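On clarity, I found the account of how folds are encoded harder to follow than it need be. Since the whole study asks how a given chain folds, the encoding of that fold should be made plain. For the editor and my fellow referees, an illustration may be useful. An entry of this sort, consisting of the sequence and the corresponding backbone structure tokens, reads as follows:

:::
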Amino acid sequence: MELAMIGLGRMGANMAERLVRGGHAVRGYDPGEAARQQAGARGIVAHASLQNAVSALPTPRVVWLMVPAGHVVDDTLDPLRPLLSAGDTVIDGGNSNYKDTQRRAAQLGDAGIHYLDCGTSGGVWGLAEGYSLMIGGDAGAVEQLRAVFATLAPAPDSGWGRVGPSGAGHFAKMVHNGIEYGMMQAYAEGFAILKKKQEMAFDLGALADIWRDGSVVRSWLLDLTADALKKNPEMQGIAPYVADSGEGRWTVAEAIDLNVSAPVITLSLLERLRSRDDDSYADKLLAAMRNEFGGHAVKQG
């Protein structure tokens, strides 16, 4: 099968290369010349314009978007829509908000164009290990692209599937990332406690290795944690600043809307926000309050 990959950043280029290795023909487009050159060296036919990449495709066309969530998706769809016809399919493999996905699917559906949302997990390891794909949208359109999804997944019959109607793929990926927030926070807190117990002199990388086999907390995330601890046990050169790309916030908002208690995910998100405050006014005020009511000493900063 032949398709166009729009967005040749690290994730998009890796996915395109995995498709090429699997026997698919991939045309690509990226506004950055360097990205296009790097993609070309990986077997991807990179075009200098969106129009050239799409017009070169056989019909019905298949276009995969790997661009940042938000307005960038709409900014890409605006010039893309006139290049497409009824029966074509657009796949959004990024981390779009599912409500935006439902809106876009309805707009393109009016023109007979299928819009599939594909929650994609696998990160930088996906090229070698395969991607976990959570797909929302028309069942028939998903089935027509079975060969593409089966190539990207860890195995043809596992690690991917249609999970529901339009928006379901991105909703599932949103919750997936919320769960990831909680798991990461638990690992980080646990290893922080171990490190603080200095009299035990734990080798955290070695301990993580022990947990990787047979332990109930074993996971691929723990595998990656063990590697990180062995490479840099003191976390030298890493600032205590943890970013978030939005999915955790959306998960917490949905939990509130659905009256679902999600304290672990919510607190893990709040801890990420806390990590960014180098000069916490709230902490200073807490210290001042303790001094006011109890005469507790205030550490001068």
Q: What stands out?
A: DSSP finds 14 helices and eight strands in the chain. The mean pLDDT is 95.
